[in-house]
Every structure is written in structure tokens, then in C-alpha cells.
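S1.2 Input.
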Amino acid sequence: MSRIQLICGVDEAGRGPLAGPVYAAAVILNSKHPIIGLADSKKLSEKKREQLALEIRQHATAWAIATASVDEIDEINILRASLLAMRRAIEALSVQPLEILVDGLYCPQSGLPSRAIVKGDSTVAEISAASILAKTARDAAMIEMHDHLPQYGFAIHKGYPTTAHIAALNLHGVSSEHRKSFGPVRRLLQGKN
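S1.3 Output.
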């Protein structure tokens, strides 16, 4: 395998929501199976993301998805939890990459050469692929969470602090899936609206 095939893109999904784990994905693309249409997951339709996620899983040289839990987010903060999920995704790869390219400002401590690239999910195919896998996996988990806690509307807002989500929190209180360190949830627990 050439060096270029061993570049790993890493991205996370779910830093901003008030509920659910943060997800991260690591992807090493296969140059013999190029995937057309890769882009920042936030700029793609849900249908397109799902289609690309399937192609990435089928054709990438290696990929992995990992999480950091709500308890971990509350304990170490969302930035550290995101980096922890990223490190777990890198460690779960079946092939060790030669270089890690991470979306954003910070790199997880993986012991491998790493570079942070601002807006990397829009400019680096490997990071775009990781962005898509992380986002589709987290969305699927939030839809599953909705089945257990339908009163919060997780299937619609995916845990983000929408008006409807805040209203549901005020009405039903804080669930075990909510991040207690996040402002709106913390204020509710303290009895402040």
C-alpha cells in the first residue's frame, strides 16, 4: 500500500446537542474505489449522507466509529470527550494509518503523526468521509433513543437545543440521556429557567 492510502480522516458529530453521546469516526479511503460526492456531512441531505455512508463502509480500506458517553462528557467536558471518542475510533481501525488528519483545531492523542485542519470536512475527502459516518451513526442512535423517550422529540432535533427540545425539557424534566453539564440542562436541574 502506498503512503497516500494510509491517510486517516477523523471527525466528530454531536458536540452541540444537549443529549446523547458524542460520536467520532476514522476513515482510510481506498484509492482503487473512489467515492464520488464526499462533502461536509452538514451540507448533504439525509438521503445523500445515508447513501455515502453505505459506500464508505463498503469501499474504504478501513473505518471505525466510536463514542464518548453522556457521563464522560459531563465528567471531562465536551472537547475532551470529543477527542476521546476520536482516539477510540483511531484505535479501533483494522489498519494503522501513517498520518491522521482531524477536522477542527485539536488532535486526539493517538501516538501517530496528526494534523488539525480547520474546515477539513469540506476540503479533505478522508475527513468528509469520517464526518458522514459519525453524523449518520449519531443520527441513527438518536432515532433509537426517541423510541425509548419519545416525549423529547430526539428523532426530530437529534438532541440539539431547539425551541421544541427546551420546551420538552421544561415539561418532562431531565432524562438520563441529557448532558447535565450543558447550560440549559444544568439551569433546569438548579431550578432556574
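S1.4 Remarks. The helical segments are 46-59, 70-76, 78-91, 120-123, 125-148, 154-157, 163-172, 183-189.
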